[in-house]
Design brief:
The chain is α+β, with helices and mostly antiparallel strands. It folds into two domains: 85 residues, no CATH class; 151 residues, Phosphoenolpyruvate Carboxykinase, domain 3 (Alpha-Beta Complex). Helices cover 31% and strands 26% of the residues. A hairpin with a 2-residue loop joins strand 1 and strand 2. Helix 2 packs across helix 3 and helix 4 packs across helix 7. The protein is globular, with a radius of gyration of 18 Å. The C terminus is likely disordered.
Length: 255
Amino acid sequence: MENDRSFTVRIAGKTIRIRPLYGRIARMCRDYTVPDRAPVDFTVCVTESDIADESRRQAASGKDKTPAAGDPAYLETLCVYRKIAEKMPDYGIVLCHAAAIARHGKAILFLAPSGVGKTTHIMNWKKAFSSEVTVINGDKPLMDLTSLSVCGTPWSGKEAMNENTSAPLGALCLLERGAENRITPIGFREALPGIIRQVYQPDDPAGLQTVLLMLERLKDVPCYRLACNMDVSSAVVAARGIFSAPTNENSKEKS
């Protein structure tokens, strides 16, 4: 018998039935919900055992220090996305630890580990370019390697910055801290190790191999190394490098 908390979402073009134990995940996914009668691509079910496994994963990674870390309903949200991330490579889609924005109809993906400043950087884009910029996802977007597009998801970090939208992938930026803002074009082979580190790697060896092979589809996407500080000018410098157009530091860039 179907769990009465079950609901259906559409994320990255895939329709997913979610059967949770708690209500938090449904509230989190409300902007991505579709009618339950929609045909589904796959179903995600969560058990108490899954939640216990997720708790152990968080403890092992040192990510169990937040107040929510011991909350089963919160841990279930992580379980659901982990299960989705394990399944999505079957459809040519991978989860990225990145921040994604869209500007001029193109998605820019900023890849970096936690603590480097992804959120600050994309907020600087919002400050610099205002309504020209949409934050697709602030922490864990999905990248469709078949269509080379970036898709929003409800999993977007503690700031919960996300939109139920997608955009063609225009550039990949490996983000790092720097005293001065500097963007440097790099080749795909130079960028690849940094990309791999920020892409979800399935537990299944065959699934991992599938993901690594699929990343070759990014070979023609422009790649950059972006050193930036916390100032809004970091977005202006990045935009100048990516869009190759004159900029105005008063946020009226013309390109």
